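thought: fold this chain, then report.
action: predict
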Amino acid sequence: MHDRAIFYYGYATSLRFALGMKNQYAVYAFLFDSQSRARWVASGMVTESDLELLFRMTKGLQQEERKLAASTARASPDQ
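observation:
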């Protein structure tokens, strides 16, 4: 398992409502950024194009996070 993955099996009505998961029988996959914003969402059967988009989004998000970390490090006073 990945240290930043969450798996939940069971009833989560308030979570489903908050995330817009309308079909309680479907499987949902989300990609969240470090600020807990959903950047990619899919449900149901996954297609090849879904996976390609997920991988592109993941790489782009990793690049954004590295840039943010670098700019934060430059802005911080030396210790």
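thought: worth noting. Residues 48-75 form the longest helix (28 residues).
final: tokens above.
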